[in-house]
Amino acid sequence: MREDWNNVPVSEDTRPRRNRRGRGGQRRDDARRAGAPGQASHRPQVSRRALEAAAAKRAAVEVPTIAYPEQLPVSARRDEIAAAIRDHQVVIVAGETGSGKTTQLPKICLELGRGRAGQIGHTQPRRIAARSVADRIAEELGTELGGLVGYQVRFTDQSSDSTLVKVMTDGILLAQIQRDPDLLAYDTLIIDEAHERSLNIDFLLGYLTNLLPRRPDLKVIITSATIDSERFARHFAAGGPLPAREPVMDDADDADAGEDRERDPREAPVVEVTGRTFPVEILYRPLEGATKGDEKDLVTGIVDACDELMTWGDGDILVFLSGEREIRDAADGLEAHLGDRARNPRHPRRVEILPLYSRLSAADQHRVFERHTSRRIVLATNVAETSLTVPGIHYVVDPGTARISRYSKATKVQRLPIEPISQASARQRSGRAGRLADGIAIRLYSEEDFDARPPFTEPEILRTSLASVLLQMISVGVVEGPDDMARFPFVEPPDTRAIRDGVQLLSELGAISVREGRTSLTETGRKLARLPIDPRQARMIVEGARHGVAREVAVIAAALSIQDPRERPTEKREEADLLHRRFADPSSDLLSYLNLWEHVRERQHALSGNQFRRLCKSEYLNFLRVREWQDLVQQLRDAAKAIDIEMAYRKPSPVDDAEGTGALRHVWDDDGIHRSILAGLLSQVGAQDVLQLKASSFSHLKGEARAKEMRKARKRASNEFIGARGIRFAINPGSPLSKKPPEFVMAAELVETSRLWARDVARIDPAWAEELAGDLAKRTYSEPHWSSKRGAAMATEKVLLYGVPIVADRPVLWAKVNSEDARDLFIRHALVQGEWTTHHGFWRRNQRVLEEAAEVEARSRTRGVIADEETLFAFYDARLPESIVSARHFDRWWQGARREDPELLTLTLDELVPEHAAVDPSQFPERWPQLDLELPLTYQFEPGTAADGVTVHIPVGVLSRVVEAGFDWLVPGMLPELVTATVRALPKPVRRLLVPAPDAARDIVAWLAAHVPAWVDVARAGDMAEPFREAFTRAVRDLRDVEIPEDAWDGLDERLPGHLRMTFRVVEPGGRGQRILDESHDLVHLQRRLAPQAEAAVRTAVQRAADAATRGKGRRDDAPAASPHPVASAPGGTPASSARPASAAVAEVDPLTAWPALDALPDEVEGTVHGVVARGYPAIVEERKDGVRAALRVLADATERDAAHARGVRRLLLAELALPVKRVTTRWTPAESLALGASPYRSTEALVDDLQLAAVTSLAPEAGQVRDRVAYEALRTQVKDRLEDAVLDVARQCAAALTAARELDVAVRGATSLALLATLQELREQSAALVGDGFVRTTPADRLPHLARYLKAGAHRLEKAQADPQKDAQLAWQIAQVTEAYDTVRAAHAKGRMAPETAAALDGVRWMIEELRVSLFAQRLGTDGPVSEQRIRKALAAIG
């Protein structure tokens, strides 16, 4: 590669550097050795005295006789060239490679006497060329190298005071400009290979354009291998550059076209020198084919071309390819095609296939130049186009493409796409076939394609980053800013956008600042300019000094600036990778350089020079590149001292290789190193973008193939990153990080080949990028919201660095972004809406006032009668300073403000509620009185919600004591609305008699006020008061003489607006407030659903009271804090705190095997928990959970106590008096045993238990009245004496019933008529209902003897039905009608709280229906008393 001046003008980060050696294999960094540059004013200048002394020494040098090789074309034109040089300041010499211009022009200048006042400077683009050219010139002059002829390249200066001709890289000359701006050390400059148009050459030409008017004594000779010489001639025209004209190509058809063009006399003279070449025949073999379907791939085209060329004669073939991968593919294709000819070295028609590209090891490259006897096919990149002359070439295959370094102005990334080459490059390639003899070149594209291509390759300055150029031009003082650079006399000025990109990169690195339109170097920029390395790498080193890792970063930066010292020979790739893997770090490719550096350093100290060379070769390390790496690090250390950056060596600790993998890793300051490197790579970070895979993409695959492809796809998806400015890239597969990609990475190099790849990658913390980016990071804020936890307005911050989201969703204080909006949010959410946690007294007082005001609004059910949120906002806004934006700010301010005015922020009810909006408290009471309870009321004005309207709060401990009656009246203030809504909800036939509804409602309200007791009395009376419906009906009858039928009320509640139905909210009081258990408009539903919780609450209260009594404290309230809505005693009733002596003596017992320790059970007991009086009702109950047993419990519902107590006493009697099972079963006859053995019971024990329980029930019908020990013991004695016989009687009754059921079942199974299907189904259901599992326990004692008769009646019915099915159907319809009426009444009562008397009456009707069945279907069996359908309906009507 070419070399830089200091680091002007090409920055390494802007061009692909790995796997490519450009056009020579050396780098363009010689200028860096020339000194550590800084700002122009700080650089040491060459003194005129020293220049004069050097000139005097050169004047004394004797030049030997100069001879010119006659075979070189330039020799024939030397007089013409000498005359042009003598007569003109600038001369253009144009000639093809091989014409001799490079070696003979310095000799012509010596013959003209040049080189005395100043040296003859001769620049070459590459180091290898500089050394070889100097050696050749010295050989032709017969002098030692370093004497008359010397050379200087990076790290090597082989010249002396007597040197007249100094061959050097163009970078060396550029570096000397910094100390010698007028180039006074030279009187002649030869700029060779100007046609390559590298950045160095273009800058030199531009600089010389400005310098020549100041140095009329300076001679400049520019050589070019192409006929684009006219562009140079016009650029160096007398009086200044002339506008460029379109060049004329030297085609066969228009060879004289250039001569026909009129020449401007101001142009610099051009001397054309014909190259030493032979004719080359051009053959076009396009891959597209003549017809559709004849297309070839590239490898096939190369194979066919080589076959064709080998038929023309002997000679080697040179094939140009665009990259290493294409070379490998072509080699594989040729080897497969040639077979044994390519594989067997002894084959008589041997064909040797050799690759040639810059990344090849030196040994592999030298193989191309070795002598050989067999035919060779050399597969080369464009390195063989002009820079290297491959011997033995007679034939060329040109696919017409090459990888051309190109900087993308859109993505700011140096790309290396495959592009069609220019016509000039195509000629250079084909010309390689005519160096030895007549040749043939096959182009794998059409002639039309060739004609359509651009004449010349675009100059590098038009396709690369200009950051380094701009930095050094500003530093040297050539330009003062991007505007000056745009006016700089380049041969082809760069695009202004490229200049702008360079400015942007320098701004990213913090190297320049722009103030008032002037660009100047920052302190960081001055340091970057003085480090002999690309600006990105220089920025890394400067940042490394801040973190104390400057030396480590310098090692990495130097490695990034040279070719990779690790080699991968084609045939030893796996072995090389294995050795190189020892240095790999799983989180960073960059640290592998440090591990390699430390290994090389240790081995170099331990081994001799030759041993170290052999080690490098055995470990696939390029010795020359290692030395170059070490030299550059030393150069950086020397330059860093001038800017006060120390790079002291600190020996790192090795990482323990516990797994024995041979890893040679060390412990480094990873974070410090990576943070420093990141400073130079801010625009080369990436965030992982994991793509979602679609199963449909793999639907065409099956089994293991599908799974394998999905695994590959997942791996590819995870290795996808979003980079700067929307680019997407993936980590190079050779990197350890590609196996498990991190979330964020930085890449030292982004190169586009088959796709955009990231090389030299490391994991980073995005927080580092945010810190380093400064103003480059773009912050966006979204979703400003109030945070109660923080007491401040928050927002979500997203930080983008060149479009890469380095921070996704970070919560930040909104006040830092928009303090005014944050203040508004604080006032609105904290002070107005109460979404904060505070201890301030004014706030608690204001909340109480607001609650009172809200109650006024809810009771009046009118919006806007109190101050709205905007009024409250204005109240606080007027009193708070502008600086109050959060709770923390408020607390600090209020601490002082309240001392001056404690009432500054206090609200009053008068301010919130206008006088006309006040409501009468008697119309909207705060408590609901019922019997001895006082239940809290609250009001909600929330239309559409379940709790809209009035809500009564019922502590769960008194839930069972509350009756639904009375709540249908609501509260006095809502009576007019309730009456109006009721009128409108009535059925139309009734409603039309009560129009207009408002007038009718007004009259009804007045009537109710006059004829119904006061609201408080109605509410307190509970179920003893007249329901609202009945009072309403009476009022309508009296006022309008309208009778409202009973069915008019069906579903009316559902037609009323929700707020006109009382909401019952059941709460569980606690020490810290109340917990809502449930709420509904249906009180009975709540009582049933929450019965377990209600009973538990009562038990807890009574048990605590009992415990307190036992401890002798006599205190039953364990919580001094009152409930937020305490249940108070009614005036005149029993105080909630009054003690009932019985309550302290009852403690639950489970299980109970004898009468409890109490002499008598109290009818009720009380306990108080959290201020709520819970009343319980002690009873002995039967429990069946985990076995059947008796227990002493405190029940919550008084209506359930007597029935439950009766069952419990009977169970307790049975627990004491039960007979053994065998004693019972041994008294059964065989027939009874057979019948009872077939019962639906799961076991004999269960059957016997129920038989004994039924016997006890029959012997103790009044068990529910036994509540003391004496009565119980008397009953126990009575039952004990008669139990055994009673059990036998019950068993016989059950056996008779089971026998009848079996006979009925046999008859049903025997019936086959389809006309009797309904009858048979009804009989099955009847039998199952009468003698199902547990029937002995569930059948009343007085009904048990009748079961057999009911079942026999079923058998009789079946007999008759078989004879007359129609009559049976008629009778069955009568039974169905009665049963339906019974079910309707029972369902109606089931919705509410069913009284014991009602339940008993309904059970009586149920057995009356069974008697009706006997009467209709088996009258001869007789009934238990008179029965008929009319009697049953009368009984149902009596129940209601």
UniProtKB/TrEMBL annotation:
<feature type="region of interest" description="Disordered">
    <location>
        <begin position="1"/>
        <end position="50"/>
    </location>
</feature>
<dbReference type="Pfam" id="PF11898">
    <property type="entry name" value="DUF3418"/>
</dbReference>
<feature type="domain" description="Helicase C-terminal">
    <location>
        <begin position="305"/>
        <end position="477"/>
    </location>
</feature>
<dbReference type="GO" id="GO:0005524">
    <property type="term" value="F:ATP binding"/>
</dbReference>
<dbReference type="Pfam" id="PF21010">
    <property type="entry name" value="HA2_C"/>
</dbReference>
<keyword id="KW-0378">Hydrolase</keyword>
<dbReference type="GO" id="GO:0003724">
    <property type="term" value="F:RNA helicase activity"/>
</dbReference>
<keyword id="KW-0347">Helicase</keyword>
<dbReference type="InterPro" id="IPR010222">
    <property type="entry name" value="RNA_helicase_HrpA"/>
</dbReference>
<feature type="region of interest" description="Disordered">
    <location>
        <begin position="1095"/>
        <end position="1145"/>
    </location>
</feature>
<dbReference type="InterPro" id="IPR011545">
    <property type="entry name" value="DEAD/DEAH_box_helicase_dom"/>
</dbReference>
<dbReference type="InterPro" id="IPR011709">
    <property type="entry name" value="DEAD-box_helicase_OB_fold"/>
</dbReference>
<feature type="compositionally biased region" description="Basic and acidic residues">
    <location>
        <begin position="258"/>
        <end position="267"/>
    </location>
</feature>
<dbReference type="InterPro" id="IPR014001">
    <property type="entry name" value="Helicase_ATP-bd"/>
</dbReference>
<dbReference type="InterPro" id="IPR003593">
    <property type="entry name" value="AAA+_ATPase"/>
</dbReference>
<dbReference type="GO" id="GO:0016787">
    <property type="term" value="F:hydrolase activity"/>
</dbReference>
<dbReference type="InterPro" id="IPR024590">
    <property type="entry name" value="HrpA_C"/>
</dbReference>
<dbReference type="GO" id="GO:0003723">
    <property type="term" value="F:RNA binding"/>
</dbReference>
<dbReference type="InterPro" id="IPR007502">
    <property type="entry name" value="Helicase-assoc_dom"/>
</dbReference>
<protein>
    <submittedName>
        <fullName>ATP-dependent helicase HrpA</fullName>
    </submittedName>
</protein>
<dbReference type="InterPro" id="IPR001650">
    <property type="entry name" value="Helicase_C-like"/>
</dbReference>
<feature type="region of interest" description="Disordered">
    <location>
        <begin position="239"/>
        <end position="267"/>
    </location>
</feature>
<keyword id="KW-0067">ATP-binding</keyword>
<dbReference type="Pfam" id="PF00271">
    <property type="entry name" value="Helicase_C"/>
</dbReference>
<dbReference type="Pfam" id="PF07717">
    <property type="entry name" value="OB_NTP_bind"/>
</dbReference>
<dbReference type="InterPro" id="IPR027417">
    <property type="entry name" value="P-loop_NTPase"/>
</dbReference>
<feature type="domain" description="Helicase ATP-binding">
    <location>
        <begin position="82"/>
        <end position="245"/>
    </location>
</feature>
<feature type="compositionally biased region" description="Low complexity">
    <location>
        <begin position="1120"/>
        <end position="1145"/>
    </location>
</feature>
<keyword id="KW-0547">Nucleotide-binding</keyword>
<dbReference type="Pfam" id="PF00270">
    <property type="entry name" value="DEAD"/>
</dbReference>
